[in-house]
């Protein structure tokens, strides 16, 4: 019968079909290899948005410099009208007990939450956020803050976080007799 007993000729296109199939398989493998990191990032980002962020408190807080009356531990005391007093270029390092997925960081810049408190000291308009994972890998993010009182929410999306370092740059309102102030830093992990 015709469909079952077809005669094959030497130029029937088998080699062409085989080459096309191999090219498609190779293209799919290459696409999977190159798109895997983007797919993983999209998956983690979706999980971040679907979950509710939960606050997490660091175990230790250390700074490169601090004033005697305004230590770096004031940034994690839960009170927004006490602050860490320091100089430009100083950094504060927060160490956590166990690695976690850092979803958000909320920063209360300046000397306090209200506009009156905020304007009493200098404040950093740019910060470098450096995250160190439990394996020792370092990731950085540049943060630019508006020069206004209140909280600033920074979406971070870093996995396996063990320590976070904030370096204060671009001071504003820093005149004679004033110091650079950072009122509060809050960290949120994925639930």
TrEMBL record:
Return the Gene3D superfamilies for the record. Galactose-binding domain-like (2.60.120.260)
Taxonomic source organism: Streptomyces roseirectus
Under Pfam families, the record lists: NADase_transloc
Domain NAD glycohydrolase translocation F5/8 type C span(s) in chain numbering:
66-169
Q: What is this protein called?
A: Zinc ribbon domain-containing protein
Signal peptide stretch: none
State the InterPro entries in the record: Galactose-bd-like_sf, NADase_transloc
């Amino acid at each position: 019968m015709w469909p079952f007993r077809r005669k094959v000729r030497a130029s029937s296109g088998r080699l062409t079909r085989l080459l096309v199939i191999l090219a498609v398989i190779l293209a799919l493998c290459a696409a999977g290899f190159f798109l895997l990191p983007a797919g993983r990032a999209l998956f983690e980002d979706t999980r971040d948005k679907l979950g509710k962020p939960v606050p997490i408190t660091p175990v230790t807080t250390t700074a490169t410099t601090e004033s005697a009356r305004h230590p770096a531990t004031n940034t994690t005391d839960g009170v927004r009208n006490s602050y860490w007093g320091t100089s430009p270029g100083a950094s504060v390092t927060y160490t956590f007990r166990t690695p976690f997925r850092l979803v958000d960081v909320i920063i209360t810049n300046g000397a306090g939450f209200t506009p009156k408190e905020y304007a009493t000291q200098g404040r950093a308009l740019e910060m470098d956020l450096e995250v160190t994972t439990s394996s020792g890998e370092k990731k950085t993010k540049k943060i630019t803050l508006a020069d206004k009182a209140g909280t600033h929410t920074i979406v971070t999306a870093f996995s396996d976080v063990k320590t976070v370092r904030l370096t204060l740059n671009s001071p504003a309102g820093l005149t004679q007799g004033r110091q650079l102030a950072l009122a509060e830093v809050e960290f949120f992990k994925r639930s």
